[in-house]
Design a protein that fits this description.
This protein has five helices and four strands, in the order E-H-E-H-E-H-H-E-H. The protein is α/β, with parallel strands linked by helices. A four-stranded parallel β-sheet has the order 1-2-3-4. Strand 1, helix 1 and strand 2 (about 35-40) form a beta-alpha-beta unit. Helix 1 (about 20-30) runs parallel beside helix 2 (about 45-55) and helix 4 (about 105-120) runs parallel beside helix 5 (about 135-145). It is globular and about 45 Å long.
């Protein structure tokens, strides 16, 4: 069908810092990217929200339970003790987060991120995950509560011929 979407180019980590925000908007305006995953727990989220409203970028909630950067660290929106390392910020790796994060803390944090997103007046088109699934069941639970697809989940991802770097399954096997 001629009207089918054949390629989605997603900007990642929108809201992390000013440079990512500027680059994301420029790529959208120049027709390079078609949607952006936005991190509500990050320091430049409010700026990203304003730019998204102004530009009309389709957005997803980039559900965040990790922070890999050495010099740019962010904290959870909630006070879940299982979500943070010794420095009070999210864990650096998915493996560290998986070993610590509880289902209850993850659901509360991811729900707070979705609520902050909505409080900015942003329409949620989808939910996805930053770096990898630290608490697999929590992503689906929050997605169901928000009523939007979790695009990397086992059912939703089957709609795509390929999700490069996120799926180890061959396209034909989906």
């Amino acid at each position: 069908m001629a009207g089918d979407i054949r390629l989605i180019v997603q900007g990642d980590d929108f809201g992390m810092c000013q440079a990512v925000n500027v680059g994301t908007v420029q790529a959208f305006r120049e027709g390079i990217l078609t949607q952006a995953s936005t991190m509500a727990a990050c320091p430049w989220f409010t700026g990203a929200a304003a730019l998204a409203r102004e530009s009309g970028i389709p957005l997803g909630v980039h559900q965040t339970l990790t922070c890999e950067w050495d010099f740019l660290r962010w904290r959870p929106l909630t006070d879940g003790p299982s979500l943070v390392g010794e420095d009070g910020t999210f864990f650096r790796t998915v493996a560290e987060a998986r070993a610590s994060v509880t289902q209850a803390d993850a659901v509360r944090e991811l729900s707070a991120q979705a609520a902050k997103f909505a409080a900015e007046g942003l329409a949620v088109d989808y939910l996805d995950v930053h770096m990898g699934e630290s608490a697999p069941e929590a992503y689906a639970e929050v997605s169901n509560a928000v009523g939007k697809p979790y695009i990397y989940g086992p059912v939703e991802s089957r709609r795509f011929a390929s999700i490069e770097t996120l799926s180890d399954r061959e396209a034909a096997a989906k």
